[in-house]
Amino acid sequence: MTAAALAVFDAALERAVAGAPGTLTVRHRSGAEHAVDTAAWCRGRLPGDLGLLDRCQGPTLDVGCGPGRLTYALNRRGHPALGIDISAAAVRLARARGATVLRRDVFGPLPGEGRWRHVLLADGNIGIGGDPVRLLRRCRELLAPDGLVHVELAPPDTPSWSGAARITAVGGAAGEPFRWAVLAAGDLPATAAAAGGLPVVRTWTEAGRWFATLGG
């Protein structure tokens, strides 16, 4: 994400934690849009989180952890979970919550590479970097040999897209282009196959959200 786009995201998080609406819109050049509710991310738990948390029984890396609700919940359960995010605001808010978080890029050097039992890509974070195949390959490098990736996906009737997009806050101007992606549940098998070595082992829905587990 570019510095300008990250500044839009950071500002929305700051407003959200102060109680103001924090909706962001990510627009692809094709016209497709993806709404991001940063205010929801600042809550303690979202409907649908429980099944995701229950599947993380061991060391977990929460990629794009945002304000850290999932990392913190796993820490509270006694699991060695680490959140990473490139947003300074997200890292500060997550640490204030009590989560164990580092400001890191998933494509850069990370602690525990090749040893994580679980990797989380929740809240649409399969879009990080604008190339889900590349991101899943990176997750495979981070996992232990028997590790699992847990991915949140867009509903099956959502168009998948990737590439240049712009992020806009309510009432604000669009930020500079950055790379992002949206992956619909129905398009996951082909994407996972292209990534190699991460078969889809289960899928589930909860509270209107769509998830899948890969690896194993």
UniProtKB/TrEMBL annotation:
Highest taxon listed in the record's lineage: Bacteria
InterPro entries: Methyltransf_25 (IPR041698), SAM-dependent_MTases_sf (IPR029063)
Database matches in SUPFAM superfamilies: S-adenosyl-L-methionine-dependent methyltransferases
Molecular function terms, GO-annotated: methyltransferase activity
Any single Pfam family the record assigns to this protein: Methyltransf_25
Coiled-coil ranges per UniProt: none
Example GO BP: methylation
Keyword list, A-Z: Methyltransferase, Transferase
Gene3D superfamilies: Vaccinia Virus protein VP39
Domain Methyltransferase: 61-147
Record-given protein name: Class I SAM-dependent methyltransferase
Species the sequence originates in: Paractinoplanes pyxinae
